[in-house]
Amino acid sequence: MTDLKYVTTTCPYCGTGCSFNLVVRDGKTVGVTPFTRSPVNEGKLCPKGMYAHEFVNSPDRLTTPLIKKDGKFVQASWDEATDYIAQKMKTFKPSEIACLSSARTSNEDNYALMKLARGVFKTTHIDHCARLCHSSTVAGLATSFGSGAMTNSILDIEKSKCLFILGSNTFEQHPLIGRRVTMAKKNGAKIIYADPRFTPTGKQADLYMQFRSGSDVAILNGLMQLIIKNGWENKDFIANRTKEYEAMKAVVMKDTYSPENVEKISGIPAAQLKQAAEWIGTSGATAILYSMGITQHTVGVDNVHSVANIQMLCGNLGRPGTGVNALRGQNNVQGACDMGALPVSFTAYQKVTDPAAHKKFEDAWGFPDGICEPKNGYEVTVMMDVLTDKPGELKALYIMGENPMLSDPDLTHVKHALEAVEFMVVQDIFLTETAELADVVLPATCYAERDGTQTSTERRVQKWRKAQDPPGEAKLDWEIIAMVAAKMGYAAQFPWKTSEDVFNEMRMLTPSYRGMTYERLDKPEALHWPCPEETHPGTPILHGAKFSHPDGLGIFFPCEWKAPAEVPDAEYPFILTTGRCLWHWHTGTMTRRSGSLDHEVPTGWIEINTEDAADLGIADGEMIKAMTRRGEVVVGARVTPDIMKGVMFMPFHFVECAANMLTNNALDPVCKIPEFKACAVKVEKIQEA
Ligand code: SF4
Question: What sections of the protein cross the membrane (predicted)?
Answer without folding.
Answer: none
